[in-house]
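User: Run a structure prediction on this.
Assistant: Running it now.
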Amino acid sequence: MRISANALGPAYLIEARVLFAAMSLLVVAWYMKKKLDFSAHTKHFFIIGLFNTALPFLLFAYAAQTLPASILSILNSTAAIWGAAIAIAWSRSLPTLRVIIGLISGVIGVTILVGLDNALLPAGSGEAMIAGVMAACCYGIASNYAKHAPKISSFDNAHGSMWAACLIVLPLLPFMPIREMPDVQISISVILLGVVCTGLAYLLYFRLIEDLGPPSALSVTFLIPLFGILWGYLFLDEQVGWNTALGALFVIGGTMLVTGFSIKKMLASNRKVKHEY
């Protein structure tokens, strides 16, 4: 996204991303002889496609024009914190002390990213930060909706929502034109972003949820900032400020608190799945 966002703009980048993802999932569906009944769950696919794909992808693509990959990855990982906060508002229940501390920790982490060490960030980063936070909020909305949504297989959810996202983003293309024709590096980046980082990633993630359950699958959330910071440093020559590392620690710690994640629970879940197999 960092490589291709400025050249393609948010709309064309995300339309290409979800289209390549949808096509790759279509190939998998054909190979596995899985038929997608899109018309039977059109409303559901469009809701998931909007809040779990199109809108957050567009917001992150907008933010990627300005922010380094490390900051984007940390903002992305606040999705679980947003999910917990929205769940509390949705159910009108009182949060536990653990959840309150986790929410505060997440806010502190984002505040550190936004408010400190601004010399490392270019002009216009404020709006990009807001877009990244709003994108993570969309994931929180989607996760809460999914709890009350029709029971559909994880593969159909991934496949159907990608085609819905294609249709949602399509009308935006005339209003956000391409700024320059993509070169080989940008073209490869977009294809990999769609096929590997979206299509294949959705398959792996939903399979983790089915096999290990949400708590263990959620452990990937804690790896997003680590790899975002690492790849940005190694391949994009991005500086890693002390605020980035400190903000990441607060966000990861807050995510662990609000989700009730623990290594002990994850290992116990893994042992249970292995025993069932």
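The first helix runs from residue 5 to 32.
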